[in-house]
Structures are given as structure tokens and as C-alpha cells.
Design brief:
Layout lengths: L1 H4 L3 E6 L4 H10 L5 E3 L10 H9 L3 E4 L3 H10 L6 E4 L11 E2 L6 H9 L2 E3 L3 H15 L10 E6 L5 H10 L7 E2 L9 H7 L7 E6 L6 E4 L4 H7 L5 H33 L1
Parallel strand pairs: 1-2, 1-3, 3-4, 4-6, 5-6, 7-9
Antiparallel strand pairs: 7-10, 8-9
Helix pairs in contact: 6-8
């Protein structure tokens, strides 16, 4: 890409003071063909100043909450930078290119020609990397009811979580979240993989700064359980627990009876 440009380009990071914006800046500063458009800390929320920074930029990265990202896009009316949005605001919008070029030649071409690019979600990237090729090859039907577990580092939780994990002793360890099964990455998981139903998704944060381990179970048992309604796995877990307790009680009762019989004999 550097050879194609032959000159530097201006890049503006809207939301450069957040965790994502700070890490993005560190990486862009390593590129000698990129000039970062600066904004005064006291003016970083001023719409007029932000628009002026966007106007002088070839590319604008949005490292903002969803609503703020939508507002930032509306500021770009009449100017035409390439907008790259890190929020979830536009990930299922067909007018935006989904920024996962490895998925297909079509995805790569859309990214190369679009001036609106949305960055995939972290958990969603792992799920989509597993499921999308199976859907493309016809191995997995759109009606499949899938489940997904994802273990992630704490930096994605922002400054507060980073402080908690780095300074609280003893370490916080691993804990699940989004237990209500309505995680914000579910729409793009369903939409990009062209599924009829979103997966049952359980993320968890663990004691590492960055990294992710995503799993999507398949096979007879996984397929059998995935045919159940989204609310039923909890009922199923309780039922299996009760059956286990009953089976254990019957086993020990039978063994006790046989032992008593041998003693009596």
C-alpha cells in the first residue's frame, strides 16, 4: 500500500483518548506515510472542530460508542473521507463494507472500493471465522441453532476493567458476562453468516490483557441440543443435574442393598 501512495495521507482518529484509539494511534505512528491529524484535548468533543479535522483527512477512524459514531458519520455530509468505524453501529448495514477481507474475494473487493468500512467485533470475528466457511460450502444449514463460548482478555473492557485487573489483588480470575444472552455482537454473527437464528453465546473475561479463544461445538450432541429453544438450555441443565442426582442415589441404594444381602447371607 505504501508503494501505491507515494505520499503521506492524513488520518484523523475520532475518540483517540480511549483504549482503542490510543492503541490505534501507537500503530499508525509506526507508518511513515501516515500523518495523524491532531485535535486539542479541550476541543475533542466540539462538533465544528471535529468536522474540520475530518475534512482535512483522507481516512477517519471512529473509536466511539455506537450513538456517537452515528453522529460522527452525519458530520461527514458534504465531505468524503474513508470512514472506518470500530463500533457496532454499522456492522449489519448493507451500505457499509464488513472489514473481514479473509472471508471472501467479495469482502476484500468491497473493502478496497468502499468509503464506509466497519470493523468486525472481537467475539464475532472468532465465531464468523469458524461458521462462515461452513455456510459458504453448504456444510451448515442456515437453520442451524448454534452455541458459542468465547474467552477474552480484559483490555476490551476499557480503562476501568484494565485498572481492576492490573491492580486488584488477589487477581479477579475468570468470570462470565452477558448472561441475559443479548450480547451486542449477536446481530453481526447472525447477519454475516446468514443464519436464521443467532447463536446462544456465552463470553467470559480472564486474567490476560489481550487474546481470545472462541469455540463453536458441532457433532450429534451439539446439533441435538442446538435444536432446542434458546431458553431451554437452562432448564435442560437443571433436568440433567436432577437426573444425575437420582442416578447416583439409585446406584448407592442398590449397592447398599446388595451389601446388606451378602452380610445377611
Amino acid at each position: 500500500m505504501k508503494a501505491q501512495l507515494h505520499k503521506t495521507i492524513n488520518v484523523f482518529i475520532d475518540g483517540s483518548s480511549g483504549t482503542t484509539g490510543l492503541q490505534l494511534r501507537e500503530r499508525l505512528e509506526l507508518l511513515d506515510w501516515v500523518t495523524i491529524v491532531e485535535i486539542d484535548e479541550m476541543q475533542r468533543k466540539d462538533p465544528a472542530v471535529r468536522r474540520a479535522c475530518m475534512k482535512k483527512s483522507k481516512a477517519v477512524f471512529l473509536c466511539l460508542p455506537d450513538d456517537a459514531a452515528r453522529d460522527a458519520v452525519s458530520m461527514c455530509q458534504g465531505i468524503h473521507p474513508v470512514i472506518i468505524d470500530a463500533s457496532t453501529a454499522h456492522r449489519t448495514n448493507s451500505e457499509w463494507a464488513y472489514g473481514f477481507p479473509e472471508l471472501s474475494a467479495e469482502h476484500r473487493a468491497n473493502i478496497q472500493t468502499s468509503d464506509r468500512i466497519t470493523i468486525p467485533g472481537c467475539h464475532a470475528s472468532g465465531f464468523i471465522a469458524i461458521v462462515y466457511p461452513l455456510r459458504q460450502k453448504g456444510i451448515l444449514d442456515s437453520s442451524a441453532r448454534l452455541s458459542c463460548a468465547s474467552l477474552t482478555g480484559y483490555s476490551g473492557g476499557g480503562k476501568r476493567m484494565i485498572v481492576e485487573y492490573q491492580h486488584i489483588h488477589p487477581p479477579l480470575g475468570t468470570f462470565p458476562y452477558a448472561l441475559e444472552l443479548h450480547h451486542k455482537h449477536l446481530p453481526e454473527m447472525k447477519d454475516v453468516c446468514r443464519l436464521d437464528y443467532p447463536p446462544i453465546f456465552q463470553p467470559a473475561v480472564t486474567q490476560v490483557r489481550q487474546g481470545m479463544l472462541v469455540s463453536v461445538p458441532f457433532g450429534y450432541i451439539g446439533g441435538l441440543l442446538s435444536d432446542l429453544d434458546r431458553a431451554l438450555p437452562f432448564v435442560l441443565n437443571i433436568a440433567l443435574l436432577l437426573l444425575g442426582i437420582l442416578a447416583t442415589a439409585l446406584f448407592f441404594r442398590d449397592r447398599t442393598a446388595r451389601s446388606a444381602g451378602r452380610v445377611g447371607g
